[in-house]
């Protein structure tokens, strides 16, 4: 029998990383079953739309090159390039919407899987799905708020944006584990982060670098293909071509990389939950109080 992880306790950086992967080890089958069943379709749809845009971008580059070579001046909207550009632009808007929805579902799924383990000792799919559906729009609101506030903060010399992003990274865990509405969770972020901003920042940086490194492995085939195609075109025509972006090999590698990036994103979400538990224990000693109450209840019984 695998040892259950104690969520509500203080952790340093090493413990957060270790327990993140311990969660996968202990609950891999049930977690990924729920994840791919309920988030997978959105990931697949987002990947398909993104792949279409990559293919269209390659076609746009080809069409722009052909127009430049022909020297034919046509109305932008009636030209093949113009029509393809407008279609790609509209699909890009759809991709943004799908990406936000996918990210929201991913956060909800991961955090409610953790909550299911916390409450029930295991991942119960029906509980996770029920919470994902009922809390989708509140989590979506939090995603939009964090994005907008961090973006506005970044406009003011970048540093405020970094501070706000790190602080508000706790908002999702607060909403899930403390059952707080968005406005209260927003305020609670600034309370929990006190005396621990730099530690939280360092932890997020290390986790981010780890995820980026693993993710970059899946991007290597695209980079190699781009280099080969680029140098081949340069040796033949003297110009570096980007038309390879429309090739099917590039699209396949792009799709694999996109799916992998969403799966790897779960590492960041699980880590953020452990960061929350650490800060909550630091300020409120929730885990310690629960342990005392449990021991007291056993003695009485």
Structural account:
The chain is mainly alpha-helical and 301 residues long. The chain has one domain. Helix content is 83%, strand content 0%. The relative contact order is 0.14.
Principal-axes shape call: elongated
Number of strands: 0
Mean pLDDT: 87
Largest sheet: none
Order of helices and strands: HHHHHHHHHHH
Uncertain ranges: none
Number of domains: 1
Structural class: mainly alpha
List the helices and strands and how they pair.
Layout: H1 13-38, H2 40-70, H3 80-120, H4 125-134, H5 136-155, H6 159-168, H7 171-177, H8 182-192, H9 197-237, H10 248-284, H11 286-300
Helix pairs in contact: 1-3, 1-10, 2-3, 2-10, 3-4, 3-5, 3-7, 3-10, 5-6, 7-8, 9-10
Organism: Psychroflexus halocasei
Transmembrane segments: 31-53, 90-114, 135-152, 158-177, 198-228, 248-277
Protein name: Membrane domain of glycerophosphoryl diester phosphodiesterase
């Amino acid at each position: 029998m695998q040892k259950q992880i104690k969520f509500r306790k203080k952790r340093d950086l090493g413990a957060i990383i270790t327990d993140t992967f311990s969660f996968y080890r202990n609950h891999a089958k049930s977690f990924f079953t729920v994840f791919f069943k309920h988030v997978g379709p959105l990931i697949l749809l987002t990947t398909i739309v993104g792949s279409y845009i990559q293919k269209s971008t390659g076609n746009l580059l080809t069409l722009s090159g052909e127009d430049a070579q022909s020297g034919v001046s046509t109305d932008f909207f009636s030209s093949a390039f113009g029509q393809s550009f407008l279609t790609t632009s509209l699909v890009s808007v759809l991709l943004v919407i799908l990406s936000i929805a996918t990210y929201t579902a991913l956060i909800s799924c991961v955090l409610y899987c953790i909550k299911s383990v916390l409450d029930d000792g295991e991942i119960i799919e029906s509980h996770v799905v029920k919470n994902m559906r009922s809390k989708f729009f509140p989590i979506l609101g939090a995603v939009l708020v964090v994005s907008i506030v961090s973006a506005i903060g970044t406009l003011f010399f970048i540093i405020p944006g970094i501070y706000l992003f790190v602080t508000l990274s706790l908002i999702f865990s607060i909403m899930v584990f403390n059952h707080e509405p968005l406005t209260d969770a927003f305020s609670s972020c600034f309370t929990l982060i006190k005396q621990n901003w730099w530690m939280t920042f360092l932890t997020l940086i290390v986790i981010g670098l780890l995820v980026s490194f693993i993710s970059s492995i899946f991007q290597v085939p695209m980079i190699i293909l781009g280099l080969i195609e680029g140098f081949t075109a340069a040796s033949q025509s003297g110009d570096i071509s980007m038309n390879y972006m429309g090739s099917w090999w590039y699209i396949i590698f792009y799709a694999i990389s996109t799916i992998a990036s969403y799966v790897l994103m779960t590492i960041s979400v699980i880590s953020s939950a452990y960061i929350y538990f650490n800060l909550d224990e630091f300020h409120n000693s929730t885990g310690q109080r629960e342990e005392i109450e449990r021991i007291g209840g056993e003695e009485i019984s």
